[in-house]
């Protein structure tokens, strides 16, 4: 009877291994190796790195669960956090969802405790590590990539408006938000049928994320009404909309994608990964028309990037943390960058020659690696994000700004946004 039970158990574990479930045998694969599951989304550039890690650690088998988009990945993560089971040993978290993870920090391991002792937060840019550090100084995630911001623009459209088009000369236009919107007034007055920027929400989010205090203060109190910077941003952006500066496009929509190809707007807030988006959507017929400059209104900023976390559900937490530490080490960040363009967040990686010498031919042979490495250094601190921060950005302020672009009174739209923010924050 006991022998029969062992046979059934072995069969179940073998099937579970095939399905990438780690519940059997304390995370053992069918061949007896320690199985580490890692859940990611989109492209992290890890496929070849997994092979390299397994070759150096013959006792480890890595099983990847890769989701095509970030939203379903994170929905699955939060569902399984609530259920108390089913998570991978290593779970990737995108920065837009990090505040929700930090609100559930008790369900994740402190990587300073279980990770390799030589892997300390000072390996990363300070603001990158700080964003994944709890109020009681527990480190929840090892930083992967980042999205330092620069400005991209259409040189030919700038020339049509009588604006400078050389990357060095345009910096003065992008020095502050005031100078940016002033240049937008000049542009729309000279060029008909083309907007200055793609959509109001894209500009508003970039402005908002530069402030020390955003939608929430550090006690998680909603401060939308009491934070004058938010209303000031709202006024500046909606004024620009009223003057015809917005193409009124929703980011990542089909219309937005087509807007690149047809030249519907002249400037784009441009994190490092946006270069690939522009090249793909604008197409080869627009090669050489787009340029990027190492300037961003009111200083630096960041849009994008992720973390590797180890949930307490993991049955191999220490080994999972070791894998996460290795994947995010400078050497591997450079390899991931070369494979998929994910921009490094570790200090040593940002000084790597392979990064600094990287050239983007589509944008006029610019040394894009060096440009964005410099932009990353301009980010001084990560804005504190409350538990509902991402929800306010995506489901409250973006739709409210879109309603202004569709003709709604800005003051009325503001009141609606405040009311919806209060509901979301409860």
Automatic annotation (TrEMBL):
The signal peptide stretch is 1-25
Q: Report if keyword Nucleotide-binding is assigned.
A: no
Q: Which UniProt keywords apply?
A: Signal
Q: Which SUPFAM superfamilies match?
A: Periplasmic binding protein-like II (SSF53850)
Please give one Pfam family short name: SBP_bac_8
Q: Which InterPro entries match?
A: Bact_solute-bd_prot1, SBP
What's the domain of life for this entry?
A: Bacteria
What is the recorded name of this protein?
Carbohydrate ABC transporter substrate-binding protein
Q: Which organism is it from?
A: Lentzea alba
